[in-house]
Design brief:
By secondary structure, the chain is an alpha/beta fold. Helices cover 52% and strands 10% of the residues. It folds into two domains: 3-118 and 189-312, P-loop containing nucleotide triphosphate hydrolases (Rossmann fold, 3-Layer(aba) Sandwich), CATH 3.40.50.300; 126-185, Histone, subunit A, CATH 1.10.20.
Length: 313
């Protein structure tokens, strides 16, 4: 580490799949090292979608400030670029008060936007977007996904067939730039400046992670997840809103709207969450300069490792 780097304030990133223990570890380290938690999660930015997105309750926060949650309503659009813009302001505020920012990262794209910056993707074109929205309304989300598959197979492989918003953006980029989305995203982009970034990755064995995911889903349901969805629907939140594409919310909404049975709904949520965790592990495996911890269910071991890393730097 150069002398210049040693003088920079630290930024600790805890990354890993859902149910791996990031939140509990972040709170523990924040208490010990005078830190504040910055969520890096594309689902937690939406207000009122709380239980299924894994937001830490006020009681469980133990007085530690948590940032970048509850930012927008269900009908609003939020991008990785907007996350970067707002998170930079939060990090500067935390730094100005001499605190340690601890980023809990579950959304790989948001973490990449924060640390590495964004590519020079084209601005949104409402003419193109409205044409694609109309096509989705007439033919369904699967039609857009098939269109993207023809235009950019790699981009299509990384987007869920039901995620109309991401499909529209990918098609828009492909049409406007005449280049694959991956090539556009790989273009030069400014990295985050002013911090010494330390990354700790939680990489639990899948044989232990998957049962924990199943247990956690049951715990969320016991905490009132179904009732939360019912209240959102009763309040007039559209099932077409972005947050109702999230894992769990989509399945519970189908339980109410389409009459899917409770047991089948739970099984679908657990399976979808396990699949998501697998995708997270694959994404984060490509992350550079990560100090990986394979232990699972041993918060003490993970905390000791993190403490040694922070003290050493």
């Amino acid at each position: 580490m150069s002398n210049d780097e040693s003088k920079l304030p630290r930024l600790l990133v805890l990354l890993g799949p859902t149910a791996s223990g990031k939140s509990a570890l972040a709170i523990r380290l924040a208490r010990q090292f005078d830190g504040e938690v910055v969520a890096c999660d594309s689902t937690q930015v939406y207000r009122h979608f709380d239980i299924g997105t894994g937001k830490v309750s006020k009681a469980d926060q133990q007085g530690i400030p948590h940032w970048m949650v509850d930012l927008i309503e269900a009908n609003e659009v939020f991008t990785a670029g907007e996350y970067r813009r707002r998170a930079e302001m939060v990090l500067e505020d935390i730094r100005s008060r001499g605190k340690l920012p601890i980023v809990t990262a579950g959304t790989g794209l948001y973490l990449r936007a924060l640390l590495e910056g964004l590519s020079e993707a084209p601005v949104r074109c409402e003419v193109v977007r409205e044409r694609l929205r109309a096509s989705a309304r007439e033919h369904g989300a699967q039609h857009l996904h098939r269109m993207l598959l023809r235009l950019d197979p790699k981009a299509a492989s990384q987007i869920a067939a039901a995620d109309t918003q991401k499909a529209i953006r990918a098609i828009e980029i492909r049409l406007l730039t005449k280049r694959p989305v991956a090539d556009v995203h790989a273009a030069e982009r400014p990295a985050l400046k002013g911090f010494k970034v330390l990354k700790i990755g939680l990489r639990p064995p899948r044989a232990r992670l998957y049962p924990e995911i199943n247990r956690r889903v049951q715990e969320m349901l016991a905490a009132g997840w179904v009732e939360e969805v019912r209240k959102l629907l009763d309040a007039g939140v559209s099932v077409g809103a972005k947050p109702f594409l999230f894992i769990g919310y989509r399945q519970i909404a189908a339980h109410f709207v389409d009459g899917v049975g409770r047991a089948e709904t739970i099984a679908q949520i657990q399976q979808a969450t396990r699949n998501f965790a697998k995708r997270q592990l694959t994404w984060f495996a490509r992350e550079r300069d990560v100090n990986w911890i394979d232990a699972f269910g041993h918060e003490e071991t993970a905390a000791q490792f993190a403490e040694k890393l922070l003290v050493a730097t």
